C-alpha cells in the first residue's frame, strides 16, 4: 500500500513533469475507477495542469479550474511515459506473470505525447478517480486527520489523537481520520522505534510513552519522506521495502536486539514486531 513518503515522492515527480502541460486525452479502461459519474474525466481535456499536491495518501492534480483526485488505495500506482517511450504493459510477455507490470486502468495523455498511466496491481479495483472543484469535496480527503509529515505537526496534535482513545496503537496509527498517510508498513516501523506494543490501547500510554511515540512518528515519516525524495517512481516500492527494520521481516533478527521478529495478524493484514523491544518478551 502506498503511504505518505512514497506518495509525496510521486507528487514531487508529477509536479516536475505535468505542470504546464495540457491534457489531450483521458482514457478510462476500467469504469469502476471513476467515482464522480456526473463529472467524467473527459471534461479535463484541453485544460493545463498547474500543480500536484498530496493529501495523506491521495494525489491531487489541479487542472484548469478543476481537480483530478487520485486515490491509490491498496494497490494503485502510476507510470510515466515520455512521447515515444514503449508501453510497459505491452512490451513484456503476454499473460499475467509475477514479473508482468500492473495493468493501467486509466491514462492521461498530454499535448506533447507524454502519458501518465494509473495502474492497479490488485485482484480488486482499489484505484479511484474524482473530478471536483475543490479536493476537499472528496469525502476521504475531507475527513483526513493531521499529517505527521507536516512540520507544523506537534506533540499536542498527537495527544489529541491518542489521549483517552481505547483503541490499539497499531490500528489507531493507520486510522486516516486521526493521522493522515500512515499505513501498515510505517505503523510497524513507528511502533518498533517507539518500543511500544502494537496492541496496547492508546489510552493506557504514560506521558513518557506518548513522547516516545511522537518522536518515532515524526522521525520515521519525515525521515522516509526525505529518503524517498528523488527516487524514480518505478523504484519507490523497492526502496521502501529495503528500508524496513521490522515490517516484512518476520523470522529475521531484530536489528536492535537480535531477537526474532514475529508476525501477527492485524485486521486483514499481517504485521511484524519484536517481542524483546516492544512487548516485554511476550508473543502476540
Automatic annotation (TrEMBL):
It holds the Pfam family H2TH. GO terms for biological process: base-excision repair. The keyword Metal-binding applies. The keyword Membrane does not apply. Keywords: DNA damage, DNA repair, DNA-binding, Glycosidase, Hydrolase, Lyase, Metal-binding, Multifunctional enzyme, Zinc, Zinc-finger. PROSITE patterns: FPG_CAT (PS51068), ZF_FPG_2 (PS51066). SUPFAM superfamilies: Glucocorticoid receptor-like (DNA-binding domain), N-terminal domain of MutM-like DNA repair proteins, S13-like H2TH domain. Residues 245-279 form the FPG-type domain. GO terms for molecular function: 8-oxo-7,8-dihydroguanine DNA N-glycosylase activity; damaged DNA binding; DNA-(apurinic or apyrimidinic site) endonuclease activity; lyase activity; zinc ion binding. Residues 2-125 form the Formamidopyrimidine-DNA glycosylase catalytic domain. It catalyses: Hydrolysis of DNA containing ring-opened 7-methylguanine residues, releasing 2,6-diamino-4-hydroxy-5-(N-methyl)formamidopyrimidine. InterPro entries: FPG_cat, FPG_N, H2TH_FPG, Ribosomal_uS13-like_H2TH, Znf_DNA_glyclase/AP_lyase. Belongs to the FPG family. PANTHER family: FORMAMIDOPYRIMIDINE-DNA GLYCOSYLASE. This is Formamidopyrimidine-DNA glycosylase-like protein. It comes from Microbacterium terrae. The lineage of its organism: Bacteria, Bacillati, Actinomycetota, Actinomycetes, Micrococcales. The gene is fpg2_1.
